[in-house]
Design a protein that fits this description.
Blueprint (H helix, E strand, L loop, with lengths): L1 E2 L1 H10 L7 E6 L15 E5 L12 E4 L2 H11 L3 E2 L9 E2 L2 E6 L3 E12 L4 E7 L6 H7 L5 E4 L8 H10 L7 H17 L2 E12 L4 E3 L3 E4 L8 H5 L7 H8 L3 E4 L4 E5 L2 H13 L6 E4 L6 H12 L6 E8 L4 H15 L5 E7 L2 H10 L5 E3 L2 H13 L1
Parallel strand pairs: 15-17, 17-18, 18-19
Antiparallel strand pairs: 1-13, 2-7, 3-4, 3-7, 5-6, 8-9, 8-11, 9-10, 11-12, 11-13, 14-16
This protein binds adenosine-5'-diphosphate and magnesium ion (MG).
The site of adenosine-5'-diphosphate has 18 residues, from β3, β8 and β11.
Length: 386
Amino acid sequence: MKLLEYEGKDVFARYGIPLQKRCGVIKIGDSLDKLDLSGKGPWVVKAQVLAGGRGKAGGVKLAKTAAEARELAGKMLGMKMITHQTQGKSLTVEEVLVDEACDIGREIYISVVLDRKAGAPSIIASAEGGMSIEELAHTHPEKIIRVPVDAEAGLLDYQARQLAFDLNIPKKNFCDFTDFAKSLVKVFVDNDASLVEVNPLVITGDERLIAIDSKIVTDDNALFRHKDQAARPDHEASEIEKEAKAIGINHIGLDGDIGCMVNGAGLAMATLDTVKMAGGDAANFLDVGGGANVDQVTKAFQIILKDPKVKAILVNIFGGIMKCDNIAAGVVEASKKVQIKMPLIVRLEGTRVKEGKEILAKSGLKLEQADSLWEAAQKAVAAAKR
Ligand code: ADP
Ligand code: MG
């Protein structure tokens, strides 16, 4: 799950990471009076969307007076934003954060990522912050520092000190920096994150060290041990994805027009590949789970049919512990309940497949059966094009 900047900063605050004073977060429909602009300013008004590069896209604005801050915040709410990280999609700004602005002396890049090669978290840092780290990695890879960290022990003192030397942290901020770097690793480990990024970490004109941006991505598979995270709204999932999640179905929306219903994530991936090879595009990745009983199959049909892009449905189910005749009975019953008006292609394989196919054939349902995944994919692609 990706956290918004202010949600990430709430986490940082719990770990004592130094931040600028917050003046408030407003949502669409909120009164602008919710903002506490009693300080002397200036302020920075920041669009809360799940993408970086907001600065260049008009999502970070400086305000010199309280009136200006209020006006900018009002204008930013509801604004559509495209940044270099949104893959051409526009995001609506539903929340705006207003922080006190600081006088920036130096910008530093620092993040903790999961380094799969090292099998450990790693700090990635560069004395040149503020700019895109991807760009820097490309043009000046030698300017990027990597420090692998032991997840159990955390960042060790000598590692934190070496990093501070490598980043040319001034004497005055040295201890603040080493504390900060250790806390950042702690945020990463404690929250089961896959990314914790501060870009930029700033040394202000009056020599304070401050994290002025935050990006945290946590691992959904660890949500069960983070009740606070699980309760947080998922800003990224579509309505269909949220509904599927609530009933225990793993669904990810895609751009194509063939709705897929498959049991098991591996088989679902293979189905997407096969549809692509047959010249089509799947509308979704959908794993009904191990059970694949009438209830789950009915719910899965309902979820697939909510997507207006879907022109044909491909059911690809392997009967292992669940036998094919039970699954076929489930498909028949479910398709009666939800009334599928578009072409339905079913491929069953596994235990008691003969009996399963017979049930489908005798059901009177308008569906096409296939003996292999390849045949099923071809039939589905042809049906979607009709
Ligand atoms: P993004 O990474 O999405 O572009 P940032 O939060 O990093 O957004 O902000 C972009 C730039 O705006 C920063 O590099 C910094 O120069 C400026 N900025 C952001 N927050 C503040 C702040 N509190 N005070 C002063 N400048 C800021
Ligand atoms: Mg940033």
